[in-house]
Amino acid sequence: MEITLTHFLVLGAIIFCLGMYTVLSRRNAISVLMGVELILNSANINYVAFAHYSSGGVDGQIYAIFVIMLAAAEAAVGLAIVLAIFQIFHTIDVGATETLKN
């Protein structure tokens, strides 16, 4: 059995769906950040798979490295925001930040 592009696309879709479910169903800010990371990783799988099966070049790997760098920056900023919310509200529940709207 040969691994084809379809296998990678199905894997990326499964990981994307798990990430979306995590983002939409969790109220914990850390869980939401983990769901966003899953979504970005599914995009990385698709970048690398399309680059490998279309041209065989390294374009997909370059995009994936760029997304990984952005994800690291997003994690650092996201965790800083979570820590600030925890200091103010003494919880990391996303629903507690509704008072920030005013």
Largest sheet: none
The number of helical runs is 3
- In round numbers, the mean pLDDT is 89
Poorly predicted sequence stretches spanning 5 or more consecutive residues = none
N-end to C-end Cα span: 58 Å
What is the second-level CATH architecture of one domain? Orthogonal Bundle
Total strand count, please? 0
State the secondary-structure class.
mainly alpha
**Proportion of β residues?**
under 5%
List the secondary-structure elements in sequence, H or E. Answer: HHH
User: What is the CATH top level name of one domain?
Assistant: Mainly Alpha
Shape: elongated
Would you tell me which CATH topology of one domain applies?
Answer: Helix Hairpins
Q: How large is the radius of gyration? A: 17 Å
Helix content: over 70%
Topology at a glance:
Elements: H1 5-25, H2 29-54, H3 59-89
Summarize the structure.
The protein has helices at residues 5-25, 29-54, 59-89.
Question: What does this 3D model show about the protein?
Answer:
It is elongated, with a radius of gyration of 17 Å. The chain is an all-alpha fold. It has a domain at 28-93: Helix Hairpins, CATH 1.10.287. The protein has helices spanning 5-25, 29-54, 59-89. The termini are far apart. α1 runs antiparallel to α2.
Features:
about 100 residues; mainly alpha; Helix Hairpins; 3 helices; about 75% helix
